[in-house]
Design goal:
- The complex is a heterodimer of chains A (about 90) and B (about 300).
- Chain A is mainly alpha-helical and about 90 residues long.
- Chain A contains four helices and no strands.
- In chain A, α3 packs antiparallel against α4.
- Chain A is globular and about 40 Å long.
- In chain B, about 55% of the residues lie in helices and about 15% in strands.
- Chain B is built from 13 helices and six strands.
- In chain B, strands 1, 2, 3, 4, 5 and 6 form a six-stranded mixed β-sheet that branches.
- Classes of the chains: A mainly alpha (about 90), B alpha/beta (about 300).
């Protein structure tokens, strides 16, 4: 478990700015969700924006660390869109 | 035995057999998850179209539960329980139908009809009457909690003069959106001797409680509480909600496990950042809670 925390801390420290951006976008996502509670369409737009931002963050981050490969981008796209579809189901009620 | 263990190891942990990344996190599996999500979207869409009895609108609100929770709140401060009254429920149903038909969300209809018109229209002669409204809640507990968190609505629930209550839970399209309306009507039937004596005149003793709360057109988010699906039917909403939560939770766990083991093995890999994926999913899971707390009261 020690390895896990050491590695996590190292990763966060090494890319603190990038993770701060991602964390801030997450906080903004929650703030907008709270503000737009009850408005289904706008909630979906906020979710879509967050997922797209997450994919772009992945591209930016991997480009920055010179590790930008197609499979990396596809990984972010697949996870982002899976989440969009799953939440779209919840929003459809 | 070894084969099963090897399979799980190959599937969930990074190692030589899976290029040092859990097989369940490989791109082909991520594609399967996306297809699974898409199939779920299609299934739910079709189920909603063809099985209105399962769920056109997903709520777990029931009249018996609302009565029980309302009386529970009253008993907390030593008040007597309200008796369920069918005429008040009929008034509540008519009020909900009127809101859908005329497209409004208010105690007063656009043509000036008041809650009391609906109560009298249902044949209920009252000494005191009141109305609480709620929309788009998922649970009975959420509705009552929201009302109890609003002083004006709370006053209605814990008004000692009330003796009877009626409810309507009606689904429909309100201003273009699928909406579940909950109407709660309180009443105290007029006593026969008062009617006979005609003193004081019935109109003079009526207390329009909800009127006091009319300007408070504010939204109060619900507090989530889980109830059993009514009538033992399969509740599609909860199946999909639980599936989504389970999927995201398992996937997040898998990401962390993979991250931990890779760190332990000191493996350098070309792939996305598990920590970033985990952070994204964590925010999404909290976001789902925000989405679920979307009800409004009036």
């Amino acid at each position: 478990m020690h390895d896990f925390f050491t590695h996590t801390a190292k990763e966060l420290k090494r890319h603190s700015f990038d993770y701060l951006i991602l964390f801030s976008s997450g906080v903004m996502f929650l703030m907008f969700l709270k503000l737009l509670q009850g408005y289904r369409f706008y909630t979906f737009v906020v979710l879509l924006m967050f997922a797209i931002f997450y994919i772009l963050w992945g591209v930016y981050h991997h480009a920055k660390i010179r590790n930008l490969h197609l499979k990396n981008i596809v990984e972010y796209v697949l996870i982002g869109f899976t989440v969009i579809f799953l939440l779209q189901i919840i929003l459809s009620y | 035995m070894n084969t099963i263990a090897d399979f799980f190891r190959h599937f969930f942990t990074p190692g030589e057999t899976n290029n040092f990344k859990a097989k369940a996190l490989h791109l082909d599996f991520l594609t399967y998850y996306l297809i699974f999500a898409l199939l779920l979207v299609v299934t739910v869409k079709h189920a909603k179209s063809y099985a209105n009895n399962i769920l056109g609108f997903a709520t777990d609100i029931s009249v018996p539960k609302l009565v029980e929770l309302t009386n529970k709140e009253r008993s907390k401060i030593g008040l007597s329980s309200l008796t369920y009254n069918e005429k008040l429920s009929e008034a509540a149903r008519k009020k909900a139908d009127d809101m859908f038909a005329k497209g409004y969300w208010s105690h007063y209809s656009p043509d000036g009809a008041t809650p009391w018109d609906f109560i009298i229209g249902a044949g209920y002669q009252y000494e005191y009457a009141g109305e609480n409204l709620a929309k788009n809640f998922l649970f009975s507990q959420g509705v009552v909690d929201a009302w109890m968190n609003s002083p004006t609505h709370r006053d209605n629930i814990v008004k000692k003069e009330y003796t009877e209550v009626g409810f309507a839970i009606v689904n429909g399209i309100l201003n273009g959106e699928e909406t579940t309306l909950v109407v709660q009507m309180f009443g105290t039937p007029i006593r026969t001797n008062i009617v006979q004596a005609q003193t004081p005149p019935p109109q003079a003793v009526k207390t329009l409680d909800a009127k006091a709360s009319l300007p408070a057109g504010h939204d109060v988010p619900a507090v989530l509480g889980k109830e059993k699906a009514a009538g033992g039917k399969i509740n599609l909403f909860f199946v999909t909600l639980d599936t989504t939560y389970l999927f995201i939770a398992l996937f997040s766990g898998l990401l962390l496990l993979d991250f931990y083991l890779a760190a332990k093995m000191n493996v350098v890999r070309i792939n996305g950042k598990n920590l970033a994926h985990f952070m994204f999913l964590a925010f999404v899971m909290v976001g789902i809670l925000f989405i679920l707390r979307k009800g409004a009261i009036l």
